[in-house]
Every structure is written in structure tokens, then in C-alpha cells.
Write a structure and sequence with these properties.
By secondary structure, the protein is α/β, with parallel strands linked by helices. The chain folds into 2 domains: 187 residues, Purple Acid Phosphatase, chain A, domain 2, CATH 3.60.21.10; 145 residues, Immunoglobulin-like. The chain has 8 helices and 21 strands. The protein has a 6-stranded mixed beta sheet with strand order 3-4-7-8-10-9, with helices on one face. A 5-stranded mixed beta sheet has the order 14-21-20-16-17. Strands 13-15-19-18 form a 4-stranded antiparallel beta sheet. The protein starts with 11 loop residues before the first strand and ends with a strand.
């Protein structure tokens, strides 16, 4: 971020969990934000709490050090609303000392009044630590916002986009997407506007093997690498992009092989929690792999409904890959069959969450009659804005 200059006007918004429960780090956080080439704004997460304070004072230290717990501001013709969606302690059981995704009536009334003053032609970005709704925790009310329908009513008829954090995953949810948990828990049968879960710079809580620069790989829950979300806005058109930490923006997907042998390894080692033996020769396929089902998988990090993935093997005509999670009202599809093998081979060996589900994985069956020898797959992923990204994968078939 210190090297970028494309956000000098709008600045950077940190979507909560700023200090990981150590509130003494707030002054250092303010100091570090000085390297940014634009204003730094913060909203609170469940790891920014004064745990020893009553509910009305739960973010006193945050407010004293970083700013208000909810607010709004304008950037050009974009109106940004930063919400506090962390209820602590929960009203249902205060003695338990747990948190919940919710906003209180005072904040809800403030939001009504704030939006009422915004011109109808403005794009509204609603930012919150605990997302309004998300894929990763679609079946858990705690990790989504109780008042989501009231917020939708306030924004009815507006051009809007929601941005959340919290889940340590990257999700580009499109208008109309639906999941079983959203319907069951909140009565929401389809998103009224796009929702993006922005991922985390820390990835999956700093887990995984150390890279050359001294920081951990930290593959996220959905298989995406850690990074930063950018919203490019022209008039009311939004183009979202994700930059992997330390990358030039070219890394947008991970391509791998989900073979019979991989799934057997997964089944044996799923419970090992970061101490599994490495999966040997992940890009080598046996006749048994091809006789069973082997998929070439593409984890298209910012892919979503409307995105496409095409695969060409050895220069043949491209074949369209199938998205594993259709986002049409189903529940999460979980397990080796639905996983990202590239991510899982890191996570089971080096630690962290396991990418055994994702809403942005595509796969295509490899032909059972592939000849022994080396083969090359070209993968072209196209997002909803028509931007194309290409990766190649070379693999071997044994005799």
C-alpha cells in the first residue's frame, strides 16, 4: 500500500480486527498508517473490544485511539457507510461473554437518517466487520447480522454494495445469489445487491509455512491467498479487484488437480491439523486416477456468479469448467470432492483452516484416455466485467 498511489483521494478503510485483542497496539497502528498515500479510516471488529467493559463502553479504547465506531463519508460520488456490527456481550446471554453480529436500534435509526440525506444517484458502499451475509458462515447467525433485512429495507431502490471482513476468506457474492442458511436464518432468498467479503492481509491468522520474506503463507479458509481489496468506481460502476499480498496483481487464481490419489490422501489426513505428510507428486496422474474421476480445478479468487472458466488441454478446443457451488439456494458443499487441492496441500501439512469448501472453485473432468507423458492445460478465467486472466499447468500421466 505504501507503494501505491491510486487511492490517494479515497484512502484506505480497515474493516475491523485491527489489533487482535491487544489494545496497546493502537498507537503503533496509527503510526503505521502514516505510510499510506491517503487517509486511513478504521471500523471495529470483535478483536478490538474492551472485554472488561459493559456493552455501552465496549469500544471506548477504539474510539479514543482510532475514531468513532460507526460513521459515513463521501468519496467523489460514492457514499461510504462504516457500521459497527459487533454486539458484545450478547443480549441473549451477557454472562457468557460472547459476541454476535448485530447493530442496535440507535445505529439503525442513525443509518435511516444518514441514507435519507444521500442523493439518489450516489453509489452506497456499506462496510462492516461482521458481514451482513457471507458464504463461509452462511449457517451461523452469530457471524452475520441479525438486522440484515432492516438494512436492506433502508437501502431499497439504491445502488449499493456491501463489503465485510471477519471470515478470513474472499467472497465476491453477486446480486441474486442465495444460500440455504440465509433463507433459514434471516428469510433472505436472494441478495439485493453485491456483497464482497474482503479477505484478510493476515490470511488465515498468520498460519502456514514461512516465506522467504519472513511472513507466513497463511492461505485463507476458501483457498485464496492473503491480500487487499480495491473498489474501482467510475460514476456508479464498480469494478472490484484483489491484489495478493506482495504481488503485482497478476495472481488471480490457483490451478491444481483433484485426483483419486489426492482424495485418498485427504481422507487419511483430514484430522491431522497441520502435521500431515506432504502429498507426493501432486501433478502426476496414474491410470487409476484417470479411470476414476480426476478434475482440473481452478480457484478463481474473485470469481462469482457470471464468471466463466475455460480449459484447453494440449491446445485442443477449450472446455467450459463447472462451478462447484452454484449459489442457487443450496447449502455448502463440503469435502475433498469440493475442495481446492492446491490450498489443502499447504494447509494439512503446514497448518491453518482447510479449504474444503469455496464459492469460487471451478472444475473440469480430465479425459480418461490421456496418453502417458507430459500435458499442458491453459486456463482462461473471465470475470463479470469481461477481464480475462490466464494460467497454465503442466502435469504428467504415467504409463
Amino acid at each position: 500500500m505504501a507503494e501505491r498511489t491510486d487511492y490517494t483521494g479515497c484512502g484506505a478503510l480497515f474493516i475491523g480486527d485491527v489489533v487482535g485483542d491487544d489494545l496497546s497496539l493502537y498507537p503503533q497502528t496509527r503510526e503505521l498508517s502514516g505510510v499510506l498515500n491517503g487517509p486511513a479510516r478504521f471500523l471495529p471488529g470483535n478483536h478490538d473490544l474492551d472485554f472488561d467493559a459493559p456493552a455501552e463502553h465496549r469500544f471506548d479504547t477504539f474510539k479514543a485511539q482510532l475514531g468513532p465506531e460507526y460513521y459515513s463519508y463521501d468519496s467523489g460520488k460514492v457514499h461510504v457507510v462504516a457500521l459497527n456490527t459487533v454486539e458484545y456481550p450478547t443480549k441473549a446471554d451477557p454472562a457468557k461473554g460472547d459476541y454476535n453480529g448485530a447493530i442496535d436500534e440507535d445505529q439503525l435509526e442513525w443509518l435511516r437518517n444518514d441514507i435519507a440525506r444521500v442523493p439518489k444517484d450516489r453509489l452506497i458502499v456499506v462496510a462492516a466487520h461482521i458481514p451482513l451475509l457471507d458464504f463461509a458462515d452462511q449457517g451461523s447467525a452469530k457471524h452475520q447480522v441479525d438486522q440484515v433485512r432492516e438494512i436492506y429495507e433502508i437501502l431499497e431502490g439504491r445502488e449499493a454494495i456491501a463489503v465485510g471482513g471477519h471470515t478470513h476468506s474472499l467472497e465476491n457474492l453477486r446480486k441474486g445469489d442465495s444460500l440455504e442458511g440465509w433463507s433459514r436464518l434471516f428469510g433472505v432468498d436472494g441478495l439485493p445487491f453485491p456483497h464482497i467479503t474482503a479477505g484478510a492481509i493476515s490470511g488465515d491468522w498468520y498460519s502456514g509455512r514461512l516465506l522467504e520474506g519472513g511472513y507466513p503463507l497463511a492461505v485463507q479458509r476458501d483457498g485464496a491467498l492473503p491480500g487487499v481489496l480495491t473498489l474501482d468506481v467510475r460514476n456508479s460502476e464498480v469494478k472490484e479487484r484483489f491484489t495478493v499480498r506482495g504481488d503485482d496483481g497478476s495472481t488471480q487464481m490457483a490451478v491444481g488437480l483433484n485426483s483419486v490419489r489426492y482424495r485418498d490422501w485427504y481422507a487419511v489426513n483430514r484430522s491431522e491439523g497441520g502435521s500431515a505428510p506432504a502429498f507426493e507428486d501432486p501433478l502426476v496422474l496414474t491410470p487409476a486416477d484417470l479411470a476414476g474421476t480426476t478434475w482440473l480445478t481452478t480457484n478463481f479468487y474473485m470469481g462469482g456468479t457470471g464468471s466463466t472458466v475455460e480449459v484447453s488441454i494440449d491446445g485442443a478446443d477449450p472446455v467450459e469448467a463447472a462451478r462447484t457451488q452454484q449459489m442457487q439456494g443450496e447449502g455448502q458443499l463440503v469435502g475433498a470432492e469440493w475442495s481446492d487441492p492446491v490450498a489443502v496441500q499447504e494447509q494439512l501439512v503446514h497448518g491453518g483452516s482447510v479449504a474444503d469448501r469455496s464459492m469460487h472453485v471451478w472444475r473440469v473432468d480430465l479425459p480418461a484416455d490421456l496418453e502417458p507423458g507430459e500435458h499442458t492445460a491453459e486456463v482462461v478465467a473471465t470475470d463479470v466485467h469481461g477481464r480475462e486472466f490466464t494460467e497454465t499447468l503442466t502435469f504428467e500421466v504415467t504409463g
